[in-house]
Design goal:
Chain A is α/β, with parallel strands linked by helices. Chain A is about 45% helix and about 15% strand. Chain A has an 8-stranded mixed beta sheet with strand order 1-8-7-3-4-5-6-2. Chain A has an 8-stranded parallel beta sheet with strand order 15-14-13-12-11-10-9-16. In chain A, helix 1 runs antiparallel to helix 2 (about 70-80), helix 8 (about 230-250) crosses helix 18 (about 520-530) and helix 10 packs parallel to helix 12. Classes of the chains: A alpha/beta, B alpha+beta. At the A-B interface, helix 2, helix 3 and helix 5 of A face helix 1 and helix 2 of B.
């Protein structure tokens, strides 16, 4: 195509994270994720051979580059492990017995990880993460993902991106465009968390590296070859965005409204990686830790010890501030191979959240045990997703009490943490006083789509799948009941991260909001601008239709 | 298997490394052990249990703390040289030797 004849054109996608990025595009090659079609013993053995060899090469290349001694020691330890017959021989034996390469590798290394996890000496306990890292590195190689660095370029376009690649990339002033994925995928959550503008569901076929483009994460579109006036327009918006971020990052201390009322502002996270670089002093705690991502993209379910270590490290990070960990919320748009059901007619009305956990008690009990043990370490709260009727929460409470009793009998330290519920099913919000919950947290994403009977994933319903007066009415029911019962009510859905929704949420009695770390600054600013109920007269069109 | 009549040679050395048999010293020890043909075992008591001194997985799993005495036994053509080298490594606090 002749460059000079190209006109500016727009490609519509869906917004997965707000914000603007502009500059040259870089198109990533498709990862050969389908590389391992064959399941023969020989093919699986070759696949493992190759993955181990490539991992060894990657580690050696990294070891050449690092300059500090400790990093070098970890890398040479990992290389030595890959060269140890005692580690890899069991994996090959499992392959001969008919196991797939990825499962065989995980099964061979997981007992070693568990062994380190259980060490008394903190040094040896810490080595578990080196082995986990090694396990995941080889699994990534087996999945056909190269350990590639994302090349420079302001807007990265790809078919899909694994969370590991996202987390190892420097996203400063960059944006991401994916053909696949959804706003609730792990990478999308991470992008919102880091303030990286992101689009999904966008046709990237005709995009070429080096082309100038604008990613508008607010409007959900990509503008290719923008003309100079459009470009100038977005340059101004980008400068304003940068200014807002700079100004907002200067905020510290307690979050207050304009009239001096205290609001607790917490963060939503999916794992430890997002806590790096965040100071617990700047937030009021973790309002939602989504555990489903610990279960995804791996060959085996996480062990009790593995979960305990992660929960414990989150509590240690929070230094006594509350950490609300939600039990596995799989199903719906978050499938987990071997656990969730395939081919449900309507997954959002199917076996998901607590419904799934109560049908897989082996998996659920393990998680409750890990949580009861972690509760000893800090200010832990346990939250149950998708509760619809009081009996579900009662069963969870009984199971958690059983876990505490069982652990105590085994001589392990455990305590009963406060047990609360997500309020995201209209039936629960309507009869909220019937539930024996220690706290309530409103999940606005699902509440909105269930109340409005409109999927958030359907672009045509963008005007319908919004927080209407009906939704705010239910929010009010929950905050009123919580206030009467002397319990906390918070909101941890995406709604809390939209600065324009902050005033109506505060109007409806919420004083605890939990948002993606990337939304902390704008939400903080919106709270500081809030001067009480009179905002209802001016800006409280809570339907917020735009 | 070599000469069936060949007996196992033994040696022991006090480990004074400040932290114990951590990753870095273990990597050095197993690398050195692998440089020899002999079968070499490592233990924390004169009667074992014994683990393969060429395996990082096994050596690290002993989780040997500071001030442990490390016992070696070796069997093979170069058993004597192997034991001398390993004792020197541990005694020299795992410094990079010649």
């Amino acid at each position: 195509m002749d460059h000079s004849t190209r006109a500016s054109h727009r490609i519509q996608g869906r917004s997965a994270a707000p914000g603007i990025a502009l500059g040259p595009l870089v198109r990533l090659a498709t990862a050969a994720t389908q590389a391992r079609q064959s399941r023969s013993v020989a093919a699986e053995r070759d696949a493992l051979d190759h993955a181990l060899e490539m991992s060894k090469r990657d580690l050696a290349a990294l070891a050449d580059k690092v300059e500090d001694d400790d990093a070098e020691a970890v890398l040479s330890f990992q290389i030595a492990l890959l060269e140890d017959e005692n580690l890899v021989a069991p994996a090959y034996a499992l392959i001969v017995a008919g196991e797939a390469a990825d499962r065989a590798w995980a099964k061979a290394i997981d007992p070693e990880i568990a062994n380190y996890d259980q060490a008394d000496d903190p040094y040896f306990r810490g080595r578990a993460s080196d082995l986990r890292d090694l396990r995941d590195r080889v699994l990534r190689r087996l999945a056909g993902e190269a350990d590639q660095a994302v090349p420079p370029g302001a807007i990265v376009a790809a078919d899909d991106m694994p969370p590991s690649v996202f987390l190892s990339t420097d996203w400063c002033d960059r944006g991401l465009v994916l053909r696949r994925g959804s706003p609730s995928s792990h990478v999308a959550i991470l992008a919102r968390s880091r303030g990286v503008p992101m689009l999904v569901g966008l046709d990237i076929d005709d995009l070429e590296s080096g082309t100038d483009a604008i990613l508008d994460g607010d409007a959900g579109m990509l503008i290719v070859d923008p003309d100079s006036s459009l470009r100038a327009d977005y340059d101004r918006r980008l400068a304003a965005q940068a200014e807002l971020r700079r100004a907002a990052s200067a905020f510290t201390g307690p979050v207050l409204t304009a009239s001096g009322e205290r609001v607790q502002l917490m963060i939503n996270v999916t794992g430890l990686a997002e806590l790096r670089g965040l100071d617990p002093a700047d937030v009021d705690g973790i309002g939602l830790m989504r555990t489903e991502f610990l279960f995804q993209a791996r060959a085996t379910l996480p062990t009790e010890q593995e979960q305990y270590q992660i929960y414990k490290q989150m509590l240690e990070w929070a230094k006594g501030k509350p950490v609300t960990i939600r039990t596995l919320d799989a199903g719906g748009d978050k499938p987990i191979p071997g656990l969730t059901r395939d081919g449900e007619l309507n997954p959002f009305l199917g076996v998901r959240g607590v419904r799934l956990s109560l049908r897989h008690l082996d998996v659920f009990r393990l998680q409750l045990r890990a949580l009861a043990r972690a509760a000893v370490v800090g200010n832990l709260k346990v939250m149950i997703p998708m509760v619809t009727v009081p009996g579900e929460l009662d069963r969870c409470r009984a199971l958690l009490q059983d876990a505490v009793a069982e652990l105590t009998r085994e001589g392990l330290n455990a305590v009963m943490p406060p047990l609360g519920m997500m309020v995201e099913v209209p039936a629960a919000a309507l009869m909220i006083e019937d539930f024996d919950a220690d706290f309530f947290s409103i999940g606005s994403n699902d509440l909105v789509q269930y109340v409005m009977a409109a999927s958030r994933d359907e672009p045509e319903f963008a005007d319908l799948a919004r927080p209407s007066r009906a939704v705010f009415n239910l929010i009010r029911r929950v905050t009123d009941h919580a206030a009467r019962a002397g319990r906390d009510a918070s909101l941890c859905g995406d709604l809390a991260g939209e600065p324009a929704q902050v005033a109506p949420l505060l109007d409806h009695g919420l004083r605890i909001l939990s948002v993606a770390p990337g939304a902390l600054a704008p939400v903080r600013a919106a709270i500081a601008n809030y001067s009480g109920k009179d905002s209802e007269k001016t800006s409280a069109k809570p339907s917020g239709t735009t | 298997m070599r000469d069936a009549g060949m007996s196992k040679l033994r040696a022991s050395v006090l480990m004074r490394h400040e932290v114990g048999l951590h990753a870095r010293p273990s990597v050095k020890l197993t690398k050195l052990a692998k440089a020899f043909e002999s079968k070499i075992d490592l233990g924390l008591s004169p009667d074992g249990p014994w683990v393969d001194a060429k395996s990082i997985v096994k050596v690290m799993a002993t989780k040997a703390p500071k001030d442990s005495t490390i016992y070696f036994r070796a069997e093979g053509e170069d058993a004597k040289a192997a034991l001398d080298a390993l004792v020197m490594l541990v005694d020299g606090d795992f410094q990079d030797g010649p």
